[in-house]
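COURSE: Structural Biology Practicum
ASSIGNMENT: Worksheet 4, Part C
STUDENT ID: 0417
INSTRUCTIONS: Below are two proteins. For each, the amino acid sequence is given first, followed by its structure token string. Answer the questions at the end about the second protein only.

PROTEIN I
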Amino acid sequence: MVAVLALISAVATGVLAGRASVKANKVTAQSNERVAEQAAAAERARVESEAFGRAKEIYDHAITELREELERIRTQYERTQEQVDMISQKLLAERTSSQEVRDQLYRAQRELNEMSSRIAYMERVITNLRQQLLAAGLEPAEHIIHGGSSP
């Protein structure tokens, strides 16, 4: 009986030791799994950090390039605005000058028309006076000055 009890005790100890070993292995496996998960999480964090760093560099470079391009465009805009202002001033001066020339031309044409009307009127008056002198039997003085023939 002592041997049976010793055998049962050995079996019970073996079973308990086996369960303890399984439990210890399970705890070790869980611990190893947690360590592996933590390592994977740390690796993901490192990769994400590097990716974020590269993305930040790309964004910073893009912002710098865009700012430089913006400055070039602003400078070109200012130069173009100055050119537009100069052209506008020239156009205004040309319009003013052109208007002045048109006004002078209109005045000269009016004067020519007035003179043309006066010339036509004077020619009619002269012709009438000449006809009256001739009808009265007198020779107009212009004929005497110019050689005496009537037109």
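PROTEIN II
(use this one for the questions)
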Amino acid sequence: MPGFLFGLLAPVLAGSGVGRTAVGVLVGLFFGATGLGSVAAGRLTERIGARAAVVADLSVLACGLLVAAAVGEYAALAVVAVVCGAGYALTNTGTTLAVAAAVPAAARTRVMAVRTAGIPALVVVASLGAGPVAAVTGWRLLLGLLAVPVVLVAAAAWRVLPGASPPGVRRAVGPGRSGLPVGFGWFPVAAFLLITGSQPVMVWSVSFLGDGLAVPVPTAGLLAALVSVAGVVGVLVMAARSRGGSARILGSRAAIACAVAALGSLLLAGSVAIGAAGPVVGVLGLTLATVAHLLAVGLLHALVVAAAPAAAARAAGVTMTGYFVGALVSAPVFGAVVDTRGWATAWIACAALVAAAACAVLRCGSLTDTPEPTHP
């Protein structure tokens, strides 16, 4: 939640002297800490199980929100971003392990897509409520109030998720082996390129509509929420129509989604120079890019499990390293490029990165669950 919330609260934080680049640093710290902690989180999740991993993360998040609300300084926000970002790695690996353990292979693509729908659902709620509520209560009280639903979700996770790693999960791997298919390094590369290029459509949508296209901030929040609703609908439609498939098929679908996301970014770049029709084209670009981004992320998660079903938590941890290091780079660099070169240049760079991600995802689709050779 903080990774997206910081970006959506950028107009409110600006009133406290926190500029776009500084907000981007907070977002980058959050997701960067997730990336750096993902490999360790994968190994830990295999040991303690999905339930303990997710509940531990949500407990850290609730405490972090309360600390940030109590202190109210930028330095405190930065520390909370790092700590909660590292904890977020446990939820990623924990939910991946839960799906691998509880869901038949034929239905995993569908379930992974539904899981991914939680991200735009969060953005919908935050886009509609974060700005208006913070304008009345201040951002500190808002963060404190948000600790309450986090605690409720932690209780639900404790009740619902499996408590221990399933017997089929590979718990220990000998020295020098990753337990993953040969060439699995393409997964973090693909994730890095995808998130570096497409994450800005989720983080900077309100700021882009307001600053780049001169849309009033309340309207910008509403439009961003509607775009996120489209993302939820798109992901759920894909989930309903999904019948699983081989790694190669999943890779092809994800590559197509990346290509559409790149097209959306190009529309965003063009909308800046169009004039009166700019907001219309901009919202169209945001919608295409957001829906395609979410589809690509959901398919990439399903592809991870298809390529390494016996080491799902570890595979997710390795992939998430690239994913969230991409988020670490993307948020502050994107904000800095906007400040120095403008919105159009930033969106063109995003399109190029996501196009490169499509090529890397195709390479991922050629992998199978073939562990590296065993050396006695």
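ANSWER KEY EXCERPT:
Q1: Residues 177 and 373 are 8 Å apart (CA to CA).
Q2: Confidence is low (pLDDT under 50) at residues 168-178, 369-376.
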